[in-house]
Amino acid sequence: MYPYEIFPGFDFYALFYMLALISALVWLRILSDKLGMPARVYNLSLLSAVAAIAGGYLTSILAQSVYDWIETGTFRFGTGMTFYGGLLGGILIFVAVYFTVGRRMFGRGGDHVKAAPLLADIAACCVSFAHATGRIGCLFAGCCHGARTDAWYGIYHVNLGYRATPTQLFESVFLYLLFAVMLALLLRGKRGVCALYLVSYGVWRFVIEFFRADDRGASFIQGLTPSQTSAILFVAAGVAIYIMKIRSKKCGGKTEHDGEEKA
């Protein structure tokens, strides 16, 4: 597409990657305030998010290195990045920081635990918007592209030397639309959009992988790409969360956090 530097050391991929991270933090702030998350819980969430972003960046690179190692037998750190590697690593780091520091701040079963379901829904919106923005950077960089095509929607990639299906752009549009749906549901008082995100994106990613043509290495499941394998886990996690939510309602459990002190 346009894999050139805006100025030395900074290109459009880096620009949209930076915008993606900033947008995630901005939406975390906006939705925490709109949905009544306690101020101290928001501060804890922000700390956890910053740690997750830093750690997720490293795990996204590590995941691609592992994929390459499985395929080639040679481990080289820094050959590229994968969304799933960054997201899964970021989630683990976020959860670890959030509950470890939260226990010190609020004690066992404190406000941070009560706010966790709401925070999961907010995080789903933040990740979806940030991912959509980051995919635009992928389009400019010429990575994550689809198969070669002469169709009207094909986009010429300088690094490839031909027109390719812009799967990056298709995914960006899908994620922005998914974000809009989840945002509307949250602002109407609905909960459980985290499950909606996991299932929706998992199904989308499994399907769109058939149209992608940038090889990211072998999968543990023969015949599937690494991203399709992860997509199955996403869908399973989303279904599990939804079932837990239904069971909790039947048992009279409280699945929402009604905070009064806004961030």
Helix share, percent = 55-70%
Shape: globular
Number of strands: 4
Number of helices: 8
Roughly how many Å apart are the termini?
41 Å
Give the rounded overall mean pLDDT: 87
Class per helix and strand makeup: mainly alpha
Radius of gyration: 19 Å
β-strand percent reads under 5%
The spatial strand order of the largest sheet comes to 1-2
Secondary-structure element series: EEHHHHHEEHHH
In the predicted model, the low-confidence regions spanning at least 5 consecutive residues are 253-262
Largest sheet: 2 strands, antiparallel
Task: Give structural notes.
The protein has 263 residues and is mostly helical. It has a domain at 5-183. Helices cover 66% and strands 4% of the residues. The protein has eight helices and four strands. The chain has helices at 12-34, 39-72, 83-106, 111-114, 116-141, 167-187, 193-208, 226-250, and strands at 5-7, 10-11, 155-157, 162-164. Strands 1-2 form a two-stranded antiparallel sheet. Strands 3-4 form a two-stranded antiparallel ribbon. Strand 1 and strand 2 (10-11) form a beta hairpin. The radius of gyration is 19 Å and the shape is globular.
Give the tags.
263 residues, mainly alpha, two-stranded antiparallel ribbon, 4 strands, disordered C terminus
In short:
By secondary structure, this protein is mainly alpha-helical. The protein has eight helices and four strands, in the order ββαααααββααα. It has helices spanning 12-34, 39-72, 83-106, 111-114, 116-141, 167-187, 193-208, 226-250; strands at 5-7, 10-11, 155-157, 162-164.
